[in-house]
Amino acid sequence: MPAQAKPLKSSWMAEEKLRHKIESLEAYAIDACKDNDQKKTAGMILKELGLARTASSALNLLIDIEYFPVHVNLDILKFNIRTDHSEDVTSAAESLLADSSDPDELNRKDLTHLKVYAIDVDEADELDDAVSAMRLQDGRIKVYIHVADPTKYIEPGSLLDKDAMKRGTSVFLPTATYPMFPEKLAMEGMSLRQGEVCNAVTVSVVLHSDGSIAEYSVDNSIIKPTYMLTYESATELLHLNLEEEAELKILSEAAALRLQWRLQQGAIDTATLETRIKVANPEDPEPIINLYVEDQADPAMRLVSEMMILCGEAIATYGSFNNLALPYRGQPQSNIDVSAFAHLPEGPVRSSAIVKIMRAAAIDFRKPVRHGVLGLPGYVQFTSPIRRYMDLLAHYQVKACLRGESPPFSAGQLEGMASIVNMQTRIARRLSNTSLRYWIIEFLRRQPKERQYRALVLRFIKDRTAALLLVEVGLQATAWVSVGAQIGDEVEVKVEEAHPRDDIIYLKEVVR
């Protein structure tokens, strides 16, 4: 049937027998048949239609009848990703929004006089964090990292808390965001909002002239975000060096001091290129793909990441001082000799070589452990409690301590919860990476055949076959490169073939 005349998706579900056939094909397409009956049903349909009995045949059939869109993300089905919230959870969120009471109201520091910058990607769904800074009379820098305070609404063990724990994290895809909390609660209640008085947990730090922590404090606070800036506009403001934005300049100076100090402590700089994609209308066969490549060494990105890392160090110090069970992250780095990579160009080439041999991070729930890669004596992720459940757990513990109460969870309980959450987080990360790669390859598939791309030689795999980084799109792929090209060199390539569904991309070097 012609495209515009296909039955509606809902009509395939109308009667039991038909629904069974569709569900069988769907299970066959993702290799997840519940029983032999589903397998037989799907196989019979494919055979009758003269199609091969393969997962890809089942998928293409479901696309042809328009039950699935052309660019359906099968991983969402495979990993059983929860794309919406149940009615119970949504109505519990609505009730919480209607109730404006704040258990910490009498214990909040008024910081509404500070100029507050929230810097994030331009389509950030919710804002977890913002920053401020000032120069003290003695010349030292004082920075403030303000973090959204969702525990105003969420209590450990509540319906919303349990639902968030099952999700583990918000899922960010080029086509959609599946938030950890119901969207309205996250956006209107928890998120930091420009020009409005917002509840926060503020970590303030005075730095020594070498970038190390001189003093710190952790407080419940109220703030009034002054600016919501994208990374691009924040970088532009830094370059303009405006007198009236002196605070932004101080933040940038603090970030530079911190990076320098961390490197002296043995930190490893792994800044590279990061791709962001937004697909405006993913249900269309040819949706609009907006692609941006950001350099993590860009001034505004450095500023934000250094402040978030500083916050993590301060919270670990606070936790240690108060004997708090927290998810203290550490990363052994004893096996990395950075000088061995000194011959490689700084940036993506060196970062890629180092990341390949880095050991996995570990979590200790009793005391801080050294984080070698960040160059810190201790580190706790704290700045994304609306989108990461492990950060929310740290908030529960710290907030109880601020109230003078005993923390809700012991180290053993945190460990048990973390094992569930980390599994979900790994699935979300994998889903996000494969989806991003799919859309980059789809973007390349649509480009004119003669278009040429700059590619950095990251390393050689075998003979002249090299791992390349396509600079304009931030994609890693392999290709044969001619004799003479070395690691760190830039070569020109063309895309010979691109098949996103099969994760296939063939590149060919353009030899001048």
- Spatial order of the strands forming the largest sheet: 1-8-7-4-3
**Spatial extent as radius of gyration:** 25 Å
Structural class: alpha+beta
What helical percentage do the residues reach? 25-40%
What is the tally of beta strands?
A: 18
Largest sheet: 5 strands, mixed
Q: With helices defined by DSSP (H or I, 4 residues minimum), what is the helix count?
A: 13
Overall average residue pLDDT: 94
Intertermini distance: 49 Å
* Estimated share of beta-strand residues: 15-25%
What gross morphology would you assign?
Answer: globular
Low-confidence stretches: none
Structure description:
Helix 1 packs across helix 3. The chain has a 5-stranded mixed sheet with strand order 1-8-7-4-3. It is α+β, with helices and mostly antiparallel strands. 36% of the residues lie in helices and 21% in strands. The mean pLDDT is 94. It contains 13 helices and 18 strands.
Could you give a quick summary of the protein structure above?
The chain has 512 residues and is α+β, with helices and mostly antiparallel strands. The chain has 13 helices and 18 strands. The strands form 6 sheets. The chain has a 5-stranded mixed beta sheet. A 5-stranded antiparallel beta sheet has the order 16-15-14-17-18. Strands 2-9 form a two-stranded parallel ribbon.
